[in-house]
Amino acid sequence: MEQRADMDWMLKDLAESVPQTRHIVVLSSDGLCMARYDTDMDAADRLAAIGSGLQSLSVAVASEFPHSDGRMRMVVIEVSGGFMYLMAAGAGAHLAVLADEGVDAGLVGQCMRDLVARIGAHLTSPPRNDGQVP
């Protein structure tokens, strides 16, 4: 999938609003990097692949709840050194943020929600037909 450079600026506000943000990536459900901010392409591709896997696992978790609609809203992973946040961000798109250990976790979540609410329509990955993006 071709990098959508015009979406990168939308991520800048999140990066500047949350100190200790390390990487911000928008990814498609199938793990392709759609946009990134202040993140090199190799790291963005790795995070997109990780995010896709987490999204898939979260759907399996959701199936264990009888009244779930099966959709992932947010996944947070805390590891030694920091956090990874993954949030649904439109049809077939997700927002991933990596942040250092001292980050304000509530602020990250709130800023991600605000970003998705403001620009969710732009953070959508159309389904691919025969491997092609329309």
TrEMBL record:
InterPro entries: Mycobact_SerProt_Inhib_Rv3364c, Roadblock/LAMTOR2_dom. Residues 8-99 form the Roadblock/LAMTOR2 domain. Signal peptide: none annotated. It comes from the Bacteria. Gene3D superfamilies: Dynein light chain 2a, cytoplasmic. This is Roadblock/LC7 domain-containing protein. It comes from Streptomyces axinellae.
